[in-house]
Amino acid sequence: AVVSEGDKEDLIISMANSRYEYVKSFEAHDALLPSTWIVIRIDGCHFH
């Protein structure tokens, strides 16, 4: 059987999409409370 380049690309794209859709079904929506701040402290003291 002869498979064209376009058919190969369509197959690869559909396989990739289905794999990620399966993973997305296990994701939970993370929501922050209103007026919540994320604080990150970066100081250069202990970087190696």
From TrEMBL:
For this UniProt entry, the molecular function terms from Gene Ontology, in alphabetical order, are: magnesium ion binding; tRNA guanylyltransferase activity
Ranges of residues in domain tRNAHis guanylyltransferase catalytic: 20-48
Matching entries from Pfam families are given as: Thg1
InterPro entries membership: tRNAHis_GuaTrfase_cat (IPR024956), tRNAHis_GuaTrfase_Thg1 (IPR007537), tRNAHis_GuaTrfase_Thg1_sf (IPR038469)
Record-level GO BP terms: tRNA modification
What's the name of the protein? tRNAHis guanylyltransferase catalytic domain-containing protein
Please give the organism: Nymphaea colorata
User: Species lineage, top-down?
Assistant: Eukaryota, Viridiplantae, Streptophyta, Embryophyta, Tracheophyta
